[in-house]
Amino acid sequence: MKEPPSKQLYNLRDFLKRIGFADTTFSRFDYAQAVLDVLEKNDQKIEVLRYTVPGIKDLPVGCKILFGKGCDIVIACGMVGRMPIDKQCSHEASLGLQAVQLSEGKHILEVFVHMDEAGSDTELAGICKDRARKHAENALMLLFDQKRLRERAGTGRRQGRADEGPLKI
């Protein structure tokens, strides 16, 4: 005997994961290009929702809005200026992101790049691209491949620069 059609239907949400992407207009690098390149090349069923805000202190509420739209994880990208006040603002934004993570019980991968991390615009763009791509890969592993992420524990992985590698004792 065949099941009634209502019992055969699956909710797409049971298979689809939503990844939020929040970025800022203050950033001098288009993080979306790097993040979406990684996410679009994966073979998992995902939907990406994007929310753009003016600056890094606006990212926590942007991420909260993305979680409200059903995101399972959010990648928050921002750029931090060179001045001491910029560092303070990034710290406050980071604390806000942590508060949202705790209230939602879901991860926000913070992709902040400080303008003084590099000596040239080319180097800065390279750091931004590498950090964004690696965090997009981390988001996929958090959602779909915890075993692979676990295998990387203690291996000195970095985002934005070359890996450090494990301690050699």
Textual characterization of the structure:
With 169 residues, the chain is of the alpha/beta class. It has one domain: Rossmann fold (3-Layer(aba) Sandwich), CATH 3.40.50. Helices cover 44% and strands 18% of the residues. Strands 2-1-3-4 form a four-stranded parallel sheet, with helices on both faces. Strand 3, helix 4 (84-104) and strand 4 (108-114) form a beta-alpha-beta unit. The termini are far apart.
Question: Which CATH class is shown?
Answer: Alpha Beta
Through-space gap between termini: 65 Å
Number of strands: 4
Structural class computed from helices and strand pairing: alpha/beta
Number of domains: 1
Radius of gyration: 18 Å
CATH H-tier superfamily: Lumazine/riboflavin synthase
CATH architecture: 3-Layer(aba) Sandwich
Strand line-up of the largest beta sheet: 2-1-3-4
- Overall average residue pLDDT: 91
Count of alpha and pi helical runs: 6
Low-confidence stretches: none
Q: What's the assembly state of these chains? A: single chain
Strand percentage lies at: 15-25%
| Envelope shape | globular
Helix proportion of residues, in percent?
Answer: 40-55%
CATH fold-type name = Rossmann fold
Sheet bearing the most strands, described?
4 strands, parallel
